[in-house]
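re: that chain from earlier
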Amino acid sequence: MNATDWISRSLALLKPAARAPAPPASAAHGAARPMAERLRATLRREPEVLTPSALRRLLAQLQAVVDPHVSEAEAGRRAQQVMAWYAGAAAGERRELWQLMVEQFAPDAEEVRAAREHYDAVHGTPEQAAAEIRLRSAFVSPRTRMLQRFAVDPQGLRFLVDLRAELLPHLKAERPLQPLDAELAALFSTWFDLPFLELRRISWDSPASLIEKLIKYEAVHDIRSWNDVKNRLDSDRRCYGFFHPRLPNEPLIFVEVALIDHLAGGITPLLDEHAAVHDLAKATTAIFYSISNTQAGLRGVSFGDSLIKRVVQTLREEFPKLRQFATLSPIPGFRAWLGKNAPAMLERLPEKERNALLRKAPVAEQLASATEQLLGLPDKAPLRQFLLRSAAQYLGRELDNDRPLDPVARFHLGNGARVERLNWAGDPSAKGLKQSCGIMVNYLYDLRRLDKHRAMTVAGRIPLSSEVERLLL
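^ sequence. v structure.
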């Protein structure tokens, strides 16, 4: 990113804090008056939460954290006091802390303006470098320095991640809070960068507290019991997670892998607790069947692409015979998309196929009444063929701002995979039927073509196998 782009983005982040209007008096977080006015007041008004005197005490504590005349260690100790207050604070009180952080610790607008004018005046001259340094310094707000000092405390990083998780749901309705989120996200992108993360295998021999985290955070296929999780950590399986030194017993993201000799077409055999253990000497294929992020506060900080690459490298070192790396993935947005686009998909069908499909009943009625009966449809059943064709269209052609519409597809295709195969009745669970009519998809990571496939996806052309292409209308 060049200096001009950086300046423009930085100014965009600054504007919401400086110009956003105060929320109405009826707002639940109680900003009936601007924070600056409340700090000068004597009495609290409804529906404000903290009294003016309580706000001033809290502000003084925050200012003590950011005081440039104290050491980092002392600043961290002072941050502990704020964290202790926050732990016992009600939701409304916490929101008022966020407001204080936003309004009272913003960049100095006059300094930013002066630095920008100076930069524009000397652009293209030998003084440009010094002007850029001055402008960058002007954008480093007291809020950023304060957040950095919170992280000095051993529990500070955990506190900030949890704070952002709590903050995120409020951003759409309370736009003035967005600069706080932006600064947290920027700091996290540095603090949780790949060089600071450790890849660790999670096995049945790992501490029980860590295995409990897998049960808690599994987001794709719910873990039903300890026997279930033991099966997922058996000798023909691998589970890996990224860990941060400040969160040593908390995986930030983890992936579950099955080592088998074929491209898996359904999740049921992989989760069967009574199935025989695969012979690792015959394993040729690594199936990534579940990837789960664990920290809501790290939304937007990407670990998944790096995790998959590191795991592939680790598996190849342990199992040199592995030749195929693929996923068995859900299609979470498919059924909702089809509900809106079924008429258009019907129009795409050849007349003979459309008549055969509609001969029984309207498509919407067939889908509503079929539920589990979908899973048993024969290969040539018109409804089955229609759903597979629609899924191919959804994954292979539907874009949003030139990116794959489906969130799981967006992740894997953005990492260089291709859409390899659609699997009928791949997920017969209630969740699978609700999301995708039970259909699952394999994304293939062809290690020789990752860059080619990534470039195709960036250009808005989804890489597909010939088998999936044949399903397109």
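The two ends are 41 Å apart (CA to CA).
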